[in-house]
Amino acid sequence: MHFLADHDVYKITVNQLREWGHDVRTVKELGMHRAADRDLLKVAIETNRIFVTRDKDFGALVFLEELLSAGVILLKITPLSIEDVHRKLFRLLQEHTEDELKYLFCVVEPCHHRIRRLK
């Protein structure tokens, strides 16, 4: 799968996704770590990548402002919950194809994940 990781995603999570065989680019690698949230979603769409973030504001952008998205995975993760969230993230990625995830807003927490379809 192809992901664009926001600046707030832990490096350990980016590395874990890469170890699982996924293609991950970070906004920092693209020189966009100071870019507006809207611009980050546009880049995710243009590069055909699922956006991974820890920033809850993306829910408002996607649902309240109806900003188009290529799929978003919101990680509710802290340093103490990394392993649990990674397990749930791994399960989510096994249960859904990349094409499915591009139409979903997913929230991954230590105990479960929730999914909401994008327009």
Strand order of the largest sheet: 2-1-3-4-5-6
Helix percent band: 25-40%
- Tell me the radius of gyration: 13 Å
Largest sheet: 6 strands, mixed
* Beta-strand residue fraction: 15-25%
Please provide the ordered H/E string of secondary-structure elements: EHEHEHEHHEE
User: How many strands in all?
Assistant: 6
Class from helix and strand fractions: alpha/beta
Which spans of ≥5 residues are poorly predicted at pLDDT below 50?
Answer: none
Mass-distribution shape:
globular
Question: What is the CA-CA span between the terminal residues?
Answer: 21 Å
Write the layout of secondary structure elements.
Layout lengths: L1 E4 L5 H9 L3 E4 L10 H10 L3 E4 L3 H8 L7 E4 L6 H14 L2 H4 L2 E5 L4 E5 L2
Parallel strand pairs: 1-2, 1-3, 3-4, 4-5
Antiparallel strand pairs: 5-6
List keywords for this structure.
six-stranded mixed β-sheet; alpha/beta; 119 residues
Task: Give a verbal description of the structure.
This protein has 119 residues and is of the alpha/beta class. The protein has a domain at 7-54 and 65-81. 38% of the residues lie in helices and 22% in strands. The chain has five helices and six strands, in the order E-H-E-H-E-H-E-H-H-E-E. The protein has helices at 11-19, 37-46, 57-64, 82-95, 98-101; strands at residues 2-5, 23-26, 50-53, 72-75, 104-108, 113-117. The protein has a six-stranded mixed β-sheet with strand order 2-1-3-4-5-6, with helices on both faces. Strand 1, helix 1 (11-19) and strand 2 form a beta-alpha-beta unit. The longest helix has 14 residues, at 82-95. The mean pLDDT is 91.
